[in-house]
Structure formats: structure tokens, C-alpha cells
Specification:
The protein is an alpha/beta fold and 208 residues long. It is 35% helix and 24% strand.
Length: 208
């Protein structure tokens, strides 16, 4: 008999939740409250992996008492995504002018979307980690196009100030690598890490 594994997403991102749901995962959401400030001289990959680990670890501590009583294994998934040109990070815009500045900087250029992933299995604390990178090319945008896009409100709450799955898709002629990574979570890489840690779907989930 296979006990159904439990997955906990250590993030309140609706985009990550949507991607997991569309990939057929059942999961719980338990956001981690951590300081997400970058450290000096930290690369985007180093930062995202550090924050993914911090998120997963924080939620693991909260979930540990549950794990000792659970008949199956619990997997905690932490992830963090950054948009960067070189080592210049583009976070979530704080205001209209900030969003416009970011889109203007990305216009006509290729940037990198980096996601750090950290998965911890309970109760034994085994873990796996990975960094996924995707190259995204923006077309040249006019000031009017930038202002119109920012006015939609879509840039806010999103790293780099844009949503590739939304209105910004019209501005992006080329993506090299994982598209779900740009949305917020490289599902194929997550699946690989889960399987490495022994994830087994229950018969019920396979037939869903």
C-alpha cells in the first residue's frame, strides 16, 4: 500500500500554485515569512537558492510536528525567482515609475529569469536543490507602450515588473528554456527533485 505523499508549497504566489495545480499536484500552501533582501556580491542564482532554502526550512520547522503523526511522507517546496541582466536584479516594482523604469531597462534586451528550488522531505530531512535559468528577449517598446502596460496594473507584485502569461506576452518574441520558470516555477525540474526524493503518486492521483 502506498501512502499518499503530501506536498506543502512554502509560498503565497498564486502563479506557483496555479502551475502546480495544472500539473496535477494536490498541495497545501504555508507561506514562509523570511527576509528576502539580497546579500552583497551575491549572484542571482546564489540569492534565489539561498531564499528557496530559507523558505523551505522555515516551513519544515512548522510542519515537523505534523510529520511525526503523518502516515506518509511530507515534501516541503521552497522557491524564489529573480529577473536579472548580468548581476543586476529587477525585483517587484514599488510604484508606477519603478515599474516603468524596469520595463524600459528590459526593452530590446535579453534578460535571465532564475529560480532557486529547495525540496525537503519529512520526517528524515532529506533534501534536493536546483537552479533553473531561462533567457527571455523583449522587443523594443515605445514610451507609450510602456506607460500603457504599467497602467494595466499587471507589473505589480511580479519580479521584473511583467507577467509573461499576461499582457506582456505581446512584447516577448523569444524564450529559451523553461517557460513555466518565467511564470514562477519550473515544474519539470520540481518533478525531477521530488522523484529523486522518492515521491510516488497514489493510484488515486494517477487515475485522476
Amino acid at each position: 500500500m502506498i501512502n499518499t505523499p503530501r506536498l506543502i508549497l512554502a509560498s503565497e504566489s498564486p502563479r506557483r500554485a496555479d502551475l502546480l495545480r495544472e500539473a496535477g499536484f494536490s498541495f497545501e500552501v504555508l507561506p514562509a515569512q523570511i527576509d528576502e533582501s539580497p546579500l552583497p556580491a551575491e549572484t542571482p542564482g546564489e540569492m534565489t537558492l539561498r531564499l528557496a532554502r530559507a523558505k523551505a526550512t522555515a516551513v519544515t520547522l512548522a510542519a515537523a510536528p505534523i510529520a511525526t503523526k503523518s502516515p506518509g511522507q511530507i515534501y516541503v517546496l521552497g522557491a524564489d525567482t529573480a529577473v536579472a541582466i548580468g548581476n543586476e536584479l529587477f525585483g517587484k516594482p514599488s510604484a508606477h515609475a519603478d515599474a516603468a523604469r524596469m520595463i524600459r531597462a528590459l526593452s530590446g534586451r535579453t534578460h535571465t529569469v532564475v529560480t532557486g528550488i529547495w525540496v525537503i522531505r519529512l520526517p528524515d530531512q532529506a533534501n534536493r536543490a536546483a537552479i533553473e535559468s531561462t533567457s527571455v528577449t523583449f522587443g523594443e517598446l515605445s514610451d507609450d507602450e510602456i506607460e500603457a502596460y504599467v497602467a494595466t496594473g499587471e507589473p505589480f507584485g511580479k519580479a521584473g515588473g511583467y507577467a509573461i502569461q499576461g499582457r506582456a506576452s505581446r512584447f516577448i518574441p523569444r524564450v529559451e528554456g523553461s517557460y513555466p520558470n518565467v511564470v514562477g516555477l519550473p515544474i519539470a525540474r520540481v518533478w525531477t527533485l521530488l522523484r529523486e526524493l522518492g515521491w510516488q503518486d497514489s493510484p488515486e492521483s494517477r487515475n485522476a
